[in-house]
Design a protein that fits this description.
19 strands, globular, binds flavin-adenine dinucleotide
Length: about 450
């Protein structure tokens, strides 16, 4: 039986163990139930989102929990986008204005291992192979099924809550939906993804530029690569699931797959001798945006992370956003909030922000696979950088607000980003370069449209 002041967490992926650390550090008794076996004891799951982009919001949450030192050696900086054209030429677009503005690549598996170990060190009771199989909201009980099929039941209550960090296919969200406590809307993307490995060269050397997020933008599809600490890169191909070539459906034979990579991504394909085998062996993953109207129930259940708001991965923000949920819970408790108040206010506080990053993530897909190739986009980036230079703390490109400024809410980043985008588009109308730009007029526009932020 769980003690009244304790917390039951379901899901030991990204958010679960981080939140467990934050809560256990506050002296709460935390039990974490995870349906998988202990990942630290087994093999990595092949082809499933091997590394992740970690940005300021995620890092801020890890720092809040005192865990930065635990993960420092896992981080590989990505200082900008390195674009690969079909003819093999490359161009580099830095992410930020200053040298400290960049994002990190981190192994999902290693991060998860470290977070689980940190949670254990804080006294969290982690129960692996324990799948949440049912919830009785009227009784305030949640049931788990172990490997031996034995069912155990745990109570929860508004002051001893049940926190759902069980991901995009959340069992707790489904139970809340079935009980009529929330409505769920899922937009499944027509594009799917497949991960591939570009191996390290001799003596662990990186075969393509190390500190960059590589993109092969091809219009309606793209390949990206994130560096790993061992010299390899994890590549992800994003492509229509079905329909006209190229789609996952049309890439149906070894010859067609090889031809596709040789013609579209020749520089990458040349470095991956078994690319066809990998393509055939690795799973194809689906992506969706999940919107949930209400994330909590008065009985004491609360959804967070992907369970409440799964998003598509094109801004590299899903985990960062889930970690930000944890930060907000930690901050609220530190400010003296009790669980019933937190349960009541969490949806209203977070949802405008998670809805905003969901929209921006979709928009970023178009930008990464297509717009980056357009000279007009490059010009917009240049003008944005100049305006940022002229108005630091006032004009901040949207990507920077999302990725480098944990203190700017997503909603605000989206709102200000739209104002800035209009400004830049209008200033560049009919132009092919930045010559004789009327900066006095633009300065005035910036000063009147955007208040000072940082
Ligand atoms: C291809 C791809 C690339 C991505 N890249 C990035 C990126 O670069 N940066 C970024 O920030 N985000 C990225 N994301 C998003 C990120 O993976 C998620 O947003 C993040 O994992 C959400 O964390 P979570 O803790 O809510 O859920 P998860 O990490 O999915 O954890 C859920 C956990 O709950 C467990 N579980 C599920 N059901 C049950 C049950 N019934 N009982 C018990 N346990 C259960 C699961 O086994 C799992 O361990 C990417 C996603 C994809 C698909």
């Amino acid at each position: 039986m769980t003690s009244p002041s304790s917390v039951t967490l379901v899901g030991g992926g990204c958010a679960g163990p981080l939140l467990a650390v934050m809560l256990a550090s506050r002296g709460l008794g935390v039990t974490l139930h995870e349906r998988r076996s202990d990942p630290r004891a087994g093999q990595a799951e092949a082809g499933r989102s091997i590394n992740l982009a970690l940005a300021a919001r995620g890092l801020h949450a890890l720092e809040r929990a005192g865990l930065r030192a635990d993960i420092e050696d896992l981080l590989v900086p990505m200082r900008g986008r390195l674009l690969h054209a079909p003819d093999g030429t490359t161009s580099f677009m830095p992410y930020g204005r200053t040298p400290d503005e960049f994002i990190w690549s981190i192994s999902r598996r290693d991060l998860n291992d470290r977070l689980l170990s940190a949670a254990e060190r804080c006294g969290v009771d982690i129960r692996f192979n324990d799948r949440c199989v049912g919830i009785d909201f009227s009784q305030g009980t949640v049931s788990f099924q172990g490997l031996d099929d034995r069912i155990t039941t745990t109570p929860f209550a508004p002051n001893a809550p049940l926190l759902a960090t069980d991901g995009a296919r959340s069992a707790i969200r489904s139970a809340m939906q079935s009980a009529g406590f929330t409505s769920v809307d899922e937009d499944v993307l027509s594009h799917a993804y497949k991960e591939l490995l570009l191996p390290a060269g001799a003596k662990g050397a990186y075969q393509i530029q190390k500190e960059a997020l590589h993109i092969w933008p091809r219009g309606n599809y793209m390949l990206i690569a994130l560096p790993n600490t061992d010299g390899s890169f994890t590549l992800t191909l994003f492509l229509e699931r079905t329909g006209a070539h190229p789609s996952f459906e049309s890439l149906a034979s070894e010859a067609v797959i090889q031809e596709f990579f040789n013609t579209q991504f020749a520089d990458a394909a040349a470095l991956i001798p078994d690319i066809v085998q990998q393509f055939l062996q690795n799973p194809t993953g689906h992506m969706s945006t999940v919107r949930t109207t209400q994330w909590s129930h008065q009985s004491g259940a609360l959804l967070l992370g992907d369970a409440a708001h799964a998003i598509v991965p094109f801004h590299g923000q899903g985990m960062n956003c889930a970690f930000e949920d944890c930060s907000v819970i930690g901050e609220q408790l530190a400010a003296g909030s009790d669980w019933p108040h937190l349960l009541e206010t969490f949806t209203a506080r977070r949802k405008p922000n998670t809805d905003a990053i969901a929209r921006m993530a979709i928009e970023n897909y178009e930008e990464m696979r297509n717009t980056v190739r357009d000279p007009a986009f490059f010009l917009q980036k240049q003008l944005s950088a100049i305006l940022e230079e002229r108005h630091p703390g006032r004009f901040i490109p949207r990507y920077s607000m999302v990725s480098f400024h944990a203190d700017i809410p997503y909603f605000e980043a989206e709102r200000r980003g739209a104002i800035q985008q209009d400004m830049v588009r209008q200033a560049l109308e009919g132009r092919s370069d930045l010559g004789a730009m009327d900066y006095r007029m633009l300065d005035e526009l910036v000063m009147t449209s955007l208040d000072m932020l940082v």
